[in-house]
């Protein structure tokens, strides 16, 4: 994928809580034998969180586009809320993300965190990955105003609010 780190999907299930109690939000889907079950009568949410490296997301893990799409469809299909986050460069992921959002029957939210290049460089240098990935390589990952053009996509200018 042209040197960009691939995104990861954070998957969770929330079971209905007994009256007067908070819901169980600590049940994370893992690679183990536990498979989440659908929450009765609740359409799962799909949240796409995008932005340049060091823009406020966590570090992406490695997967490919088809696997990401399959995981999102599977998990939302069985009632699991999904937050898909990563750099998700529009040039590579636009088609898949457009399909996921347009096919999803429940609420979908797409956010883009727009942080100035120099701010992302400053943040990168302050984290452990800053030692492993040279600044010049990191600068090459930056994609300015990399919006998808998905209906309802929200751009958050994080550079002005830091």
From TrEMBL:
Record-linked Gene3D superfamilies: P-loop containing nucleotide triphosphate hydrolases (3.40.50.300)
The species this protein was found in: Nocardioides psychrotolerans
Which parts of the sequence are annotated with region: Disordered? 1-29
What is the designated name of this protein?
A: AAA domain-containing protein
Q: Which domain of life is it from?
A: Bacteria
